[in-house]
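User: Assemble these into one structure.

Assistant: Restating your components, then the assembled model:
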Amino acid sequence: MSDVVETPVLHVSRDQLIETVAGLRDDGYVSALDVTAVDYLEHPGRTDLPPEVEPERFELVVTLISHITPGRIRLRVQVPADDPTVPTLFDLFPGTEALEREVADMYGIVFEGHPDPTRILMPPDWEGHPLRKDFAVGRIPVQFKATR
Amino acid sequence: MSAPETTVEAATDEAVRRREDSAVLRIGEDDGERLEAESNASDTSMIMNMGPQHPSTHGVLRLMLEMEGETVMRSKPVIGYLHTGMEKTAETLTYLQGPTNVTRMDYAAPLFSELAFSMATEALLGLELPPRATWIRMLMCELNRISSHLLFQATNGMDIGAVSMMLYGWREREEALRLLETITGLRMNHNYIRPGGVAADLPDGWRDEVLTLIDALPARLKEFDTLLTGQPIYRERLQGVGVINTAECLALGVTGPILRSTGYAWDLRRDMPYLAYDEVDFDVVVGTYGDCFDRYAIRLNEIRESIRILAQILDQMPSGDYRVQDKKVTPPPRARIDESMEALIHHFKIFTEGFKVPAGEVYAAVESPRGELGCYMVSDGSAVPYRMHIRGPSFVNLQTLPHLMRGGMVADAVAIISSVDPIMGEVDR
């Protein structure tokens, strides 16, 4: 195989997320490297989910790293489109603050308890969430306050 | 039985402290003026904007600083001025076009984004690269690391006031870029590392050119030492400024020279080797105090380590193919196109439709000059990525700014921004 070591994947529900991450932190996963999301709206068929996991439109992807026995772990959380909320990981890993703001900005997923739930990359008055699959490339004319 | 309770309490206290009494100024981008107007006259603090157009912000970084006189209290980096939706763009480009997109993220170290992207694609495809391709990639990455760290030396010197350093750093960097241009055809945004290998074999005489560079550099680095390292004014500006410890770095997800400056030896090249880094000998440079000076010294000495690695690559560069011979991803050789209709069609299809990549998801990471650069990719089995996310080290490292700047002067803030070495193209993507 190639250079990339396969990362073990954990499927957790939203309710178990905090508990699982806290447990992993105590097990030596010292740092939260990455928080991102995927919008599976237009995905033709998802085959990589275990049968007990109900697929939802959004998926939150959290990557943690352990340094003692070098290795990463990836947590995948299904987030339904009609209630896109997840608890924030800020209290466990404050470094997720900017990453969660980016996910909220790009996907409209609300992080409950986030200390600074403002837009990070888009202007504060932007409408919509650009990385959603139903937000087409170039659909909206450039929005800037000065041009209104 | 009371022990766990205290831990819980301590943890809760810590969480409260982090929220309430933080170094981070948590107000909206437009709230500065409003708060300023509402605050009463006896309030001694004021909110000041630095950037987005400021010579020391390395691009378009804006900082909201809460000042008490000359002292920075809380602060907030405001980003997004360079945001062009590159992750969205990636969803419309084939896997072969992808590197042209990601290479524009970290424009000081473009080959690392190309490498992470290519490694992720190859992992999904299950490709194994020929050894020469791996070693060429390593050669290019170390050259790029040198040019990126030289750029840091130049801009860091300039920010501190050592303007002559800017000229020296830029001169040396240009030598490294000239070599990259000889090999890839471009000074920056190379699009050289691609899924399946590299774009072209090394040109004739590459060995002599690399040798010339790595022979000349150590003497130049000595000049840097004379100019900066031992200079009292320079040390005074950096030592003890912007201090961070290992625990804070890990909690904030910080990687790269900032994490290593706290004395914590973590380098993906050594700890989770990729390419052929387990076959070369090098040291992981660490600091002691976690201040701006340590971060400067680490980057200077990492240039020396890269030179060491390059010398070993010159000795060990294997012969063979520079890209994988897999008909699925590799176009047929040029000579075949003249004699075979099928080869022409095949060539045409690879560059128009692209090749299909099996469905799946993968995270590939490399040690860029700024820390862990990861690429998370989801494929739905088509010829374009379903989702492509770059975990940019600058983006995450930028979160240290409020913690590093708290209690310092505005002049220190300039030194601190410089020592974090953010590349805004990759922060905003």
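Chain B touches chain A through 60 residues (CB under 8 Å).
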